[in-house]
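Hi U.,

Before I forget, here's the chain from the pilot set. I'm dumping it here mostly so it's searchable later in email.
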Amino acid sequence: MLKTAALGMALYGLYSIVVGLEDLFGIAALEWWADLWVIATGTVLLLSAAFVRASMPGGLALAVGGLLGLQSISLHNDGHLYGQVLLLPQVARAAFATVLVGLALAGWDANQAAEDGEKDGI
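Structure:
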């Protein structure tokens, strides 16, 4: 389950980075700072996927931060792209993030993380 959660987070992060770059260098439908926000939070989510996969302490918190950042900027972007905040895409995005976090929590190996910490002298 942890592999699935990490893969989902990595793919969602990569998707966000590509969409942000496409809008930044393509037909700019959003402000430049909104595109940079999408790219930055997608990068945070992509990097945190590796931490989640390794069951590193704080990795899941970083992933939740990236997911919340993407959710927040999507609220802004909906207003600019569609003229209103659409409920279904927001709920679907939130449900997907909840599933990813739930999978990560279900597959989290606290014993492995503790053993790795003991090996590293932490």
